[in-house]
Design a protein that fits this description.
4-stranded mixed beta sheet; Arc Repressor Mutant, subunit A
Length: 305
């Protein structure tokens, strides 16, 4: 058994096809199929039912999806740790802050991250490197010292950490261009209730995300677990679903999906937090947190226009 086989297995399970895994890894379908047959032989039972259409998991395969994902994440964490160490060795300026923004992939991600990094570096006089990560991966990096802090959208509760709010943001909704509510710019929880909302286990079970906070406040839309880009597209385009997010007009991806605001009377304002380990003092981080707290309204305004 090797990490390549596990990655092919996990990607096939997520995409629902061997061809989807092949495209993700830039290999042939035959290479994926051969690797999975070898993995099944080693494990002693089929992972997929090849009698149907697509890559349909057997009960045995379903039981191994989560362990496979955890094994891949652990492997990738080692690779990231090695890359980060080498980057620090090569970059004499790496004494600045490395911050992990805890969100799923989003439109205009690179533009937004780079802009935030430049603005924070310029305004705070501290070199800030901001990159996106998922919660469990970033938390492992935080504990190992590879990053200085996590920036979470919503609070994070762990006795080993200190979670400090930097400011609060309003809740928005991404909808497809043909959604029945597309012409209504201010949406209530009652408006949204009939339509499915995206849920992702690896994201929404890490911290108090926007979805978690809104459901606690009374949002009653049915949740649909989505783990792939194709799944997001299907939810928005074919199922009249929606995705919760931070309300920033800069995140519009017209004409494919448009950001609408959720009525503040329903949706709570969500804290943006800096999460660091209690046992690890960092004067640069303390100074950065103090600066961002003071300048948060200005930074938010820059990205809301």
């Amino acid at each position: 058994m090797n990490i390549r086989q596990l990655r092919y297995f996990y990607l096939s399970a997520c995409s629902g096809s061997f061809s989807g895994a092949a495209r993700s890894e830039n290999v042939s379908v035959q290479a994926v199929s051969k690797a999975l047959i070898e993995l099944e032989d080693e494990l002693g039972s089929p992972l997929f039912d090849r009698g149907g259409s697509g890559a349909v998991l057997t009960p045995f395969g379903e039981a191994l999806v989560r362990p496979a994902h955890e094994a891949i994440a652990s492997f990738d964490a080692v690779v990231r740790a090695a890359d980060t160490y080498l980057e620090r060795e090569e970059d004499a300026a790496a004494s600045g802050l490395r911050l992990a923004l805890i969100t799923p992939p989003f439109a205009k991600e690179n533009m937004m991250r780079n802009a935030f990094s430049r603005i924070f570096t310029h305004m705070s006089s501290t070199k800030v490197t901001l990159f996106r990560s998922l919660g469990t991966e970033a938390f492992a990096d935080l504990k190992s010292g590879m990053i200085d802090a996590m920036i979470t959208v919503g609070t994070f509760n762990d006795p080993r950490c200190i979670c400090r709010p930097l400011g609060k943001v309003s809740v928005g909704v991404f909808m497809g261009k043909d959604h029945p509510l597309r012409r209504k710019r201010l949406l209530s929880f009652a408006d949204l209730e009939p339509y499915p909302v995206l849920y992702n286990r690896s994201i929404d079970e890490f911290n108090d995300t926007i979805l978690v906070s809104c459901r606690r406040a009374g949002l009653a839309s049915p949740t649909v677990e989505v783990n792939t880009d194709d799944g997001v597209a299907d939810l928005l385009e074919d199922r009249n679903g929606y995705v919760l997010g931070v309300y920033l007009k800069a995140l519009d991806v017209k004409p494919l999906a448009i950001m609408h605001r959720v009525d503040p009377a329903d949706a709570p304002r969500i804290p943006i937090c800096a999460v660091a380990l209690k046992e690890r003092d960092n004067e640069q981080l303390e100074s950065f947190i103090h600066f961002i707290r003071n300048e948060f309204p200005l930074v938010k305004k820059m990205f809301s226009s």
